[in-house]
């Protein structure tokens, strides 16, 4: 039985750091609401405000 062990003499613990990596992330633009969606949101907002005024 033969056991062979080998290794490298010049091993870096960490790979070299790249200078061109960006650390910022730009969120994609959200889609615009339609008039119908705005109306639904306004109705819910009005109902919420009326419920607060009743208490």
Question: What does it look like?
Answer:
By secondary structure, the protein is mainly alpha-helical. The chain has one helix spanning 35-54. The longest helix has 20 residues, at 35-54. The relative contact order is 0.07. The model has no long low-confidence stretch (mean pLDDT 83).
Given the structure, what is the number of helices?
1
Q: Mean pLDDT score, rounded?
A: 83
- Described by the principal axes of the CA atoms, the overall outline is elongated
Question: Percent range for helical residues?
Answer: 25-40%
Taking the alpha carbons of the first and last residues, their distance comes to 86 Å
Could you tell me the radius of gyration in angstroms?
31 Å
Question: Beta-strand level of the residues, as a percent range?
Answer: under 5%
Main beta sheet: strand number and arrangement? none
pLDDT < 50 runs, ≥5 residues: none
Question: What is the ordering of alpha helices and beta strands?
Answer: H
- Work out the number of β strands: 0
**What class, by secondary structure content?**
mainly alpha
